[in-house]
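Hi R.,

Here's the chain you asked about this morning:
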Amino acid sequence: MKTLRLNTSPRVFWSTAVAIALGIIAGIGILTFTHKNPARALTQITNFGLRADNSTLTKIPILPKLNEQMTLLIMGVDSNGKNTDRFANTRSDTMILVSLDPINQKVGVVSIPRDSRVKIANSQRYDKINAAHAYGGPELAVKTISETFGINIDRFAVVDTYGLKQLCRLIGPMEVLVEKEMHYHDHTAKLSVDLKPGLQILNAEQLEEYIRFRHDAKGDIGRIERQQWFLRQALHKLADPQIVFMLPDLIKLGQDYVQTNLSYEDMARIASFVKDVPRDHILTCTLPGTPEMISGGSYWVPDFEATKAIFARIVPYASMPNNFDSYNNIANDSNNKPVSIAIKYAKGSEIQANQLEVALTNLGYKVKYKWQTAKEECQHEEIVLNSTKIDEQKTNELKNNLPDISKWPIILEISTSPVVDMTLIITPTTSLPAVANKAGISHT
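And here is the predicted structure, written out as tokens:
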């Protein structure tokens, strides 16, 4: 398939997964199928009855449907600057696999740390995975990931970040929960970060600061976590019907910033699917592994066994490693044991943690321990799955038993030797009235 340079200048590379799938890509699809310029296309949209105040993209009958699973590799690269080949010899600063499952109405997002040590395809060389794009463009990056992890990748999109701030300014400020104070200044990288903690409205410059910040103990892994939280918020933002009326400007803005082998019809199908996916149907995870120094270089060494378990859940047609069956059997051997749970909370949330412990115990779960940690580590309510024992059925059972947590995001952090099967993270503002009732404790 011919590689296209397309519109979309997502302000954050991986949010292309959302931007491509929503209004921006929907606009390209609309323009393609109606064969009209942006202004006339908007007239056509209006004629279908679309209004920003009372309707959504569902009123547009020309978008085709996504009928089968699709896996995208989204890569973000630094810009080479104006009047250059923006994508030549650039390393992929961000790499995200997005699995779109229209049958089950789910989106899976796997972030691949850029320092992951892998064998580069078409060579015997081991290097950081972000070097594959520099050596051979998106095709080599796709082949490297496919061969390393045994998965099929249907399409790719490479995003240039030159238009990042302009797109943010166009779609407007965004509400973001900043987990902690973030301060960093790098004149060479032209990055100055100065953010205070708390739920707040961030402008274009501040959004870039939030997403690019990685100068703390977690480094790139912390940045990936923030990207994933932003992804969820971006989905909500770009699902706003108002985005449709920005399509001409979005198309003009993004024309030079994306390289992809997605066809216009592909993008329209994705848009048709993603606009209806509930936010709690987005499953996110980061490639499991450990940081290591090898021959003087800093790498993220993937845990391939745990990684395959994650891909098996998110990408059903992923091929399994030879030793996966034994690992899966170990997990199955423990299926008759009570599900073990850890409760993670910050100081001041002791009441909620106690209520949750009692309610879970009454329901037959084993609360192995409660874990009080720093407030900045408990800013998002989460259901973290640590073991392959916790499949979708068991996750749904927990949500049905405790409706207070039914909308909490699900994060995969699969380990080959998990301490607990799952971890529940509560925040200082978490309210659990139904949990309190099940625990037999008056809710305060």
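One quick note: The two ends are 60 Å apart (CA to CA).

Cheers,
M.
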